[in-house]
Specification:
2 domains; five-stranded mixed β-sheet; four-stranded mixed β-sheet; 44% helix; transport; SBP; signal; ABC transporter substrate-binding protein
């Protein structure tokens, strides 16, 4: 049954099913032709996301306000699905796509997360919109390259997030004789301070459920391997079973030894809250966490700090939320209008100011954003960019799922480091 509620939020529990629909890609024009747009192609647009609460919903609301100004004759239909940090939305989406019942557009992480949809023939090429909206000039060239698959582009990013961020509570550090403004050159320097905290009975590093542990893993790999060898994990030029990766996994094992015992029962907001409340000193999380601090009145640089994960200074571990044009979108004109707003300077400014991320566009005014966001804008412009593992940019979904399963086994004690490394090599062999 098609969801068509203007402001409703769904809670989905659909079982994961294979993507088997095979369809011909239609045009991406805005007149309802191409792939099934009807005579009322632009009357409405159902936008399918997992932005149902917190700063994510605030960002969506801000984007909708711009959309309503730019396209007042098109009704926005909120297809947000709550639950599971996006997993419930992805499950329901796959069921709908398999049933040939797509929304008009859906949120997905830009990059190789889209590959399954592309291979199933479920997405239209939106490259013509990049030309129509002048996005090849507005977006950084290396970002456009990362979004391109076999000469085509299948989504338009609404934002850029940075994954390799170390959040800290300076009051906790100062209380235990540590420099609250310390800049760590390496993981070993950081681990030395974590030892001090652990000996004092403080939780040094908060993490949460499996995906946050994979998030920590990717930043440790990046810190130890450097950007070139880290990229090689995904293009086959770095040996997953080599000594360098073994050393990085040993560092990941050590990092996990500093974490909270209740981690598997938490999600990222609870892990971040431990730092906000002073019950943990550090947390490695993407920069969506800045909104959690700021919503509670915490001041950047005073109540909390943010810096690249030790060993990753000068590298921007990138991910992006993006929007697609599905094959068979019922209101393709509405899809076109929504993508225009997502791509626009006004839309990206409003959305990212509320969500804590930064615009994909290079012409946004840094003065419109918070102090932390201004540092991220500067870093994205000058740092080496790599793709996030945990958030869909570096690998297809099946690979990430296999990596997550291997990581969960290891961190729960169900496998040793040698087995973990072998399972990671197997998981990524098909990339």
């Amino acid at each position: 049954m098609r969801v068509n509620r203007r402001t409703g939020v769904l809670v989905a529990g659909a079982a994961l099913t294979a993507l088997t629909l095979s369809a011909c890609s239609g045009s991406s024009n805005g007149d309802g032709g191409g792939s099934g747009g009807g005579s009322e192609s632009a009357a409405e647009v159902e936008v399918f996301t997992w932005w149902a609460a917190g700063s994510e919903k605030a960002g969506l609301d801000a984007l909708v306000a711009v959309f309503d100004e730019q396209h007042p004759d098109i009704e926005f239909v909120n297809g947000a699905v709550a639950g599971g940090a996006g997993s419930a939305a992805k499950d329901l989406l796959q069921s709908r796509l398999q049933a040939s019942d797509p929304p008009d557009t859906f949120q997905a992480h830009a990059g190789l997360e889209l590959l399954d949809y592309i291979n199933a023939g479920q997405l239209q090429d939106v490259s013509p919109l990049y030309d129509e909206f002048d996005l090849r000039e507005a977006f950084p060239a290396d970002l456009v390259e990362r979004l391109t698959h076999e000469g085509q582009i299948y989504s338009i990013p609404s934002n850029i997030h940075r994954a390799n961020v170390l959040w800290a509570n300076p009051a906790v550090l100062e209380e235990h004789g540590l420099d609250p403004q310390a800049s760590y050159d390496s993981l070993d320097d950081w681990f030395a301070d974590l030892d001090v905290l652990q000996e004092a009975g403080v939780t040094p590093l908060s993490v949460a459920t499996a995906w946050t542990q994979v998030h920590l893993l990717e930043t440790i790999l990046l810190a130890d391997l450097g950007p070139d060898a880290y990229n090689g994990l995904w293009d086959g030029t770095t040996d997953w079973e080599g000594a360098e990766v073994t050393a990085a996994l040993e560092d990941f094992e050590r990092a996990m030894s500093y974490t909270n015992g209740d981690r598997d029962g938490l999600d990222w907001p609870e892990a971040t809250q431990l730092v906000i409340d002073g019950n943990a000193a550090f947390n490695v999380m993407g920069d969506w966490a800045v909104a959690a601090f700021e919503e509670q009145g915490k001041v950047f640089g005073t109540d909390f700090t943010a810096a690249p994960v030790p060993g990753t200074d000068g590298v921007f571990d990138f991910l992006a939320d993006s929007f697609t044009l599905p094959v068979g979108a019922p209101h393709e004109g509405g899809s076109h209008a929504w993508l225009e707003t997502v791509a626009s300077l006004e839309g990206q400014t409003a959305f990212n100011a509320a969500k804590g991320s930064i615009p994909a566009r290079t012409d946004a005014d840094p003065a419109d954003f918070s102090e932390y966001q201004r540092t991220a804008i500067e870093s994205f412009a000058q740092d080496t960019i790599v793709s996030s593992l945990a958030h869909g940019a570096a690998t297809p979904v099946a690979t990430l799922n296999a990596v997550t399963d291997a990581t969960s086994k290891f961190t729960s004690g169900a496998s040793d480091l040698s087995t973990f490394q072998s399972e990671l090599a197997t998981a990524t062999a098909a990339d």
